């Protein structure tokens, strides 16, 4: 491969490459390393990821008692912090099967302000001291005097907690996240920002930071609904490329706020609907007429159906071809029916999905089964049906909900806990590389061909194989005579590839020490 500036200039045989050797500035002997396009993580919260990397991470706490103990230790180690921020607790994985109470949190933190988000980031436990900083929260929907806060109460307290992060702390967190991303072979991130998630300052600071130094490309989204053209002025002013990302149609399954057609198996309600089909239609129509990509966060079957219905109504107003051309997005899209899959394919909706959700919460004993029952849980994240229907996939992590882990994400899609939903390693890899570029409207990236952006990674990997999900899928492709390129063996239990060097736009942005 020959790279000219920020572009791939040539790819061919080793023999033919010898003729270029005298005319280039540098020749790199790969010494057997695998070269692939850099990964794109299609759904990230960068500052929150950095805060989790550098702060109080409760994702590996095995019990409620351990989570409280870690909180106490963190509070003692950071006496100067005005608000203690933590992330990742998941009561569904604890033997106690409940979150911390307010009294327990107050005791663990010595009465200091504390904000701890659940793993899905759709609810949080909050100390008394922080609640007092937001006295109006008690009158908002989603307020609970002792338990986790959801909905508007959670959003209000989150804004207060994040306001305590200084610009210097925010930049340090963002840098930590960006550096971690490139160390994993991630060359681009889709930042899903919005007024209920982060802040305008957070997004503009991130885009400025990423644009001013070598590192991963960052494509920003701003999640604010539009009913008229002027509503998109803020999106443009912030430097975002689309009005979407986490524009909430519903919440999450773990917090029982995803909008369902039928009640939860462990709660007597169907979750929350923030936007209905009419609001979806308005947003998609306004964005389409302005030539801007729209997008939504939709997880439950009720929410996904509202998106499908709303997009159809928008297409009736502005024309289906114009809707398809913008590649509007749906984040998460976990509970789909054959009808909604068909609608995604019909209108060219990009499904921005997170296979690690299934790896963490799927299976007969997982959180999905607890919340929905076994039968509904087995329908979640039907990647194979989506691929067969022609739905474009872009893979991501929703970090810090699940960690940045590109090869682990590909493995989770190829070895889905429900075998019928598995896709080939090649299909998952393509969705995590080229799929992420196509999701931002660019068809030139995520591949290594002449003219493509020079975003690539050198890997230390084991044997290269062609893996299909099972014997019924693409048997022909496993035959070496098919010419299908191999990828690392991602069979569960085997070590994942290690990034040796990550290159973005022709610049080395990460090099593994001592390699």
Automatic annotation (TrEMBL):
Sorted UniProt keywords: Hydrolase
InterPro entries on file: Amidohydro_3, Metal-dep_hydrolase_composite, Metal_Hydrolase, YtcJ-like
Protein name: Amidohydrolase
CDD domains: YtcJ_like (cd01300)
Classification of source organism: Bacteria, Bacillati, Actinomycetota, Actinomycetes, Kitasatosporales
Pfam families referenced in this protein's UniProt entry, alphabetically: Amidohydro_3
GO molecular function ontology, one term from the record: hydrolase activity, acting on carbon-nitrogen (but not peptide) bonds
Domain Amidohydrolase, first and last residues per copy: 26-510
